[in-house]
Amino acid sequence: MQASRLWMDRTARRAMLALAVVPSALVVAMVLGLWLRSRPILDATSLGDVLLSSSWRPLSGEFGFYPFIMGTLWVTCIAVALAVPPCILAAIYLSEYAGRALREWAKPLIDLLAGIPSVVFGMCGVLVVVPLIKNRVAPLFGTFSTGYTALAAGIVLAAMIAPVIVHVCLEVFRTVPREARDGALAVGATKWQTVKHVVMRKAMPGVIAASVLGLSRAFGETMAVLMVAGNVARAPSSLLDPAYPLPALIANNYGEMMSIPLYDSALLLAALVLLVVVLVFNVASRAVLVRIERGIAR
Amino acid sequence: MKFARIEEAFFKALMAVATMVILATLVLILGAVLVKGLPAMNLAMVTQTPKGGFYLGKEGGILNAIVGSLYVTGGATLIAFVVALPIVLFLNAYARKGSRFVELTRFSFDVLWGVPSIVYGAFGFAVMLFLGLRASLLGGIIAVAFLMLPIMARAMDEVVRMVPKELLDASYSVGATRLETARKVLARQALPGILTAVLIAFGRGIGDAASVMFTAGFTDSLPHSLFGPAATLPLAIFFQLGTPVPEVQERAYASALVLTVIILITSVVARLIGRRVARHTVG
To answer: How high is the ipTM of this complex?
Structure first.
């Protein structure tokens, strides 16, 4: 009896240990798997050529990612520029100024926003943002636009990443010790001065990490962008140009990719590029956030 | 001094506006889904599969996508749970606290959490090619399980970590093994929180389109085999919205309403269960 209980315990330990390797192994497997599948295209052309060439003619075997990379960068930058400042302000407001009641309502509401699927965001983009740009914004600049633009994608993405940024910022502000605030208030600083000089200074690394997390979200987001960005394989040169980000490229061409040589390899290389960029962003910001979190545990 | 006060008032107003804008966005999105979706909603949408010419505006519904989504996400939830729960129990009952291995595992989950779903789709597709699978229910389950695993594991870890250490010590001191403690103390104490984690991950999984795009395929009939294609709700919305026929676009709005309602219910239930946990551990 006793022996079998110990045996069970030891077996379970081994099985669980084996399973616990899964997450780390999965990260490695994804990089490796995508790399293996994208080898053929890298054998045919160099990585530099694929990333910097702007000719995209899958039928004649020319796969240049430049327009898509630029599309991704435009859309991501617009989204971050639109989302980060209001999110930081809102997070400060909710953590420092807002009353208990508002805070308790606002937090779950914002988390709810985080759970809305990206297709629904995309649909709302098609319904609201695209017509707005076509009918109001474009005439303002005296140009014609279908509304399916880098700007539209940026706006939709900004709405999508906002809950993530607010959520993480709130966590970060929570780690700023109360004593730091009380100290500043005690020497006669106003609330805003305390926030500006004490809270923000302490929370800065975390706020930057939160923004980078939002950025990497925007970078890899697919459906919402696919639905409103316009998807023209040319690098955008203004806010009102269509854009064709990498994730949309992958999603849009999965149907035909098996019938053209090297096409699947090129698309999986695109996925690998996305994965690697997002991994770098994520590892960096998580490392900062983990350190901050450990700070309060102490 | 006066300047300081003006500055404060200015920024306070700015912050209040920012908060309102963000909250208004949520209301606007839910409002748009309701206003557009409700008029297009009817019983046929949720009780029938697409009839011939459905995508040209003829009769039918999206039962295929509703059932397909539940199958794909249900299967993925099961797999993710079977993998995630032992890992989380291991991290909290067996592994030495704060060891390299524990940190690395948590960190890996965090990193996986940030991987874009299109990459899970592409990777899932690469795995399917390797296994010789076609776009199928099973393929979708695999890809969505990858996507849900980190979400579920991180959420579970949060609650299991909350179980007071004294309880574990008490269990060990009466001679229970770590396995018995993990099963009968950790898992039982954290049960509502574990359920919450499962529901949160389910909500994420069912709403995701990019991961099932390559992997689950799409079909007008109900899924009947693990190796046949399965329709999913997010893709149904996407395809219907992409047609030029207004009646079909209306159906996309109704489908979006169905999906949003499923996700909102899941999320609210998860939160209610979660609140109950908090009350128990604090009180």
So the answer is: 0.89
